[in-house]
Amino acid sequence: MFITFEGIDFCGKSTQVDKLKEFLLEQKKKVEVIREPGGTLISEKVRHILLDKNHYSMFEETEIFLFSASRAQLVREKIRPYLEKGYYVISDRFYDSTTAYQGYGRGISIEAVKQINNLAVGDTIPDITFFIDIPFEEAVKRGSKKSGAQLDRIEISGAEFYSKVREGYLKLASEEKRFRIINGTLNIQEIHNTVIEEIINLESKVSA
Ligand code: TMP
């Protein structure tokens, strides 16, 4: 099963990725966790270019191709081989981040974003996607607890940007059946329980 977590920065998805991994390992499942951008030698180098604050002059078009280049490598080098070996692959972000951030956030045409995503991933589409939803004001509040120096190039994009990204995710969630929206202001354990419930439900449907 291919499971992805999405959401605006500071929504708490990485904590949920860790908790789900622990849960699945306790169930004696084979699990591989990856994060985007990154996850392979080449993709981690691309991540570094993308998040470096000195690269403030990066154009939106450059940005989308770099995220997608990182992903194209990750899909072929890791995700597909692990899925073929029967692993649960959990990804902290995937191409929905590109649609939400570069499409709805930066304003690149959604049609173009879809084509680029399609080229990067082909038929490697998540079975289920958890959108951990927090109000953008909450993201800005949580982000302001980090010092300016700790924030990466995308995280300094501002409140208006986050508002557009969140709206984009909500639109995606309304269009794609694989999406589950989870209220990210609930406590960590409540969110985790919902995630597990949804996965068990989906597995029982697939095996029925
Ligand atoms: P992270 O903070 O979840 O590791 O993600 C890194 C940043 O990159 C985060 O601000 C979201 C952003 N991002 C995009 O803008 N587009 C993408 O396609 C991906 C995967 C991440």
Mean pLDDT across residues: 94
Radius of gyration: 16 Å
Structural class: alpha/beta
* Biggest beta-sheet profile: 5 strands, parallel
- H/E series: EHEHHEHHEHHEH
Ends apart, CA distance between termini? 16 Å
Envelope shape: globular
Tell me the strand order in the biggest sheet. Answer: 2-3-1-4-5
Name the beta content range. 5-15%
Helicity range of the residues? 55-70%
Task: Give the names of the bound compounds.
Answer: thymidine-5'-phosphate
Number of strands: 5
As residue ranges, the low-confidence spans are none
Oligomer: single chain
Number of helices: 8
Describe the structure.
The chain has helices spanning 13-26, 41-51, 60-84, 95-105, 110-121, 136-144, 159-175, 188-207, and strands at residues 2-6, 31-35, 88-92, 128-133, 179-183. It contains 8 helices and 5 strands. The two termini are 16 Å apart. With 208 residues, it is of the alpha/beta class. The longest helix is centred in the middle third of the chain and has 25 residues, at 60-84. Strands 2-3-1-4-5 form a 5-stranded parallel β-sheet, with helices on both faces. Bound molecules: thymidine-5'-phosphate. Residues 9, 35-37, 67, 92-93, 97-98, 101-102, 154-155 line the site of thymidine-5'-phosphate. Thymidine-5'-phosphate is lined by residues 9, 35-37, 67, 92-93, 97-98, 101-102, 154-155.
